[in-house]
Design brief:
The protein is globular, with a radius of gyration of 22 Å. It is an alpha/beta fold and 370 residues long. The strands form three sheets. It has a six-stranded parallel β-sheet with strand order 3-2-4-5-6-7. A six-stranded parallel β-sheet has the order 11-10-9-12-13-14, with helices on both faces. Helices cover 38% and strands 16% of the residues. The N and C termini lie far apart (61 Å).
């Protein structure tokens, strides 16, 4: 392991320069360092909580430095405001609603939005975080999802593995890192500490990790941290068979508290098949190695970041497979930090600007329906 300074203070969130510039521009009504913004993008989700996932704030703040004004989603803005591009990341959230009444109203608004996009020639860009929703939509919801995807003019793929299903007009832009989002002195991890973090949901296959860990004789502790449905978390607790080596913390952490959890772990274990995952990049951004399932995306990422940072498991429930991989990662000599240079946000912002220009080539009009 590389030598690091003992952690002196808890992790705290910092604001990168391009985030500060974007905030200053929004408060002053103009761009910090640029005379004006020339392209307005409406994001397809409401302005997110950075504590949940800083990806969206980091992306859209970085775009402010390439003459792009990003506006948070509202149905009023989507239907009546002036914008050149609609950019969605998780289109299922425009389709899935919690109640029957909200579903009915939401589908009506979505129909109006699709009409507006077509009449005004506003292109939709979709960043393909998940080729399909993690949790299945009902049949009617799937039809609306298909209608929404049919309006997409350009797809942005985070990995090459998802581009095989692209419908033609696509760009490859990797997921950015999180190094700019935190500061603090991260000391050596606790020896023998394993961590799973993230939403505690069935598709994350946390049960497989628990089963494999219980079968192993690793001299380690497993810590499972995140928010989720209480009934599912109770299932996980029962699954541990009260083994004292396993701690489950059912809590939504702030981003700084989560950074401290990651920094304290010797190895982060992500037991679900990864196509695009902010979690693996967050662990690597904080200099912590990861053990995960072998997929095309994780194999590609391993080659990118360098040796010793990602270990592979073919079956999380297999004692031999899980234990061998964890022991190998613990023993690996990591000479330098993971190489995440291709995921610097200014570079990603430039690539998004080019992608937006491609999407606008055939749809250059913009209208305001009021």
């Amino acid at each position: 392991m590389p030598s690091v300074k003992p952690r002196a203070t808890p992790a705290t969130r910092i604001v990168p320069s391009y985030v500060r510039n974007s905030i200053m521009a929004r408060e002053s009504g103009g761009d910090a360092g640029e005379p004006s913004r020339t392209l307005t993008v409406l994001q397809g989700e409401r302005w997110p909580d950075p504590a949940a996932n800083p990806y969206i704030p980091l992306l859209y703040a970085a775009l402010g430095n390439v003459d792009i004004q990003v506006e948070p989603f509202s149905w009023k803005s989507a239907l009546f405001a002036r914008y050149e591009i609609l950019h969605v990341h998780w289109p299922e959230y425009l389709v899935r609603k919690r109640t029957a009444l909200r579903t009915l109203v939401g589908r009506g608004l979505l129909a109006l939005l699709l009409v507006r996009l077509r009449l005004c020639g506003i292109p939709m860009v979709w960043t393909v975080h998940n080729p399909a929703p993690h949790e299945a939509l009902p049949q009617n919801g799937r039809r609306w999802m298909q209608a929404l995807k049919s309006a997409v003019k350009l797809e942005i793929h985070l990995t090459e593995s998802t581009m095989v299903d692209s419908r033609g007009n696509a760009a490859l832009i990797p997921h950015g890192h999180y190094r700019d989002w935190y500061q603090g002195d991260y000391g050596p991890a606790s020896r023998g500490s394993l961590l799973f973090f993230g939403q505690l949901r069935a598709y994350k296959r946390i049960e497989d990790l628990i089963d494999g860990f219980l079968e192993s004789d690793l001299p380690a502790r497993l810590r499972i941290v995140g928010s989720g449905d209480t009934s599912f978390v109770d299932q996980l607790r029962r699954r541990t068979r009260n083994d004292r080596r396993i701690d489950i913390v059912h809590q939504r952490l702030t981003d700084s508290a989560l950074a401290d959890e990651i920094a304290a772990a010797e190895v982060v274990v992500l037991p679900y098949p990864i196509t695009n995952s902010g979690s693996i990049l967050l662990a690597l951004s904080l200099g912590r190695p990861v053990v995960t399932l072998r997929t095309a995306s994780t194999l590609s990422l391993s080659r990118e970041v360098g040796p010793g940072w990602i270990g592979f498991v073919d079956d999380m429930t297999s004692r031999e497979s899980l234990q061998t991989s964890i022991e190998a990662v613990m023993a690996a000599e990591r000479i330098r930090p993971p190489d995440l240079s291709a995921r610097d946000w200014p570079r990603i912002a430039d690539a998004h600007r080019a992608a937006y220009e491609r999407a606008l080539k055939k749809d250059v009009t913009s209208c305001r329906l009021r």
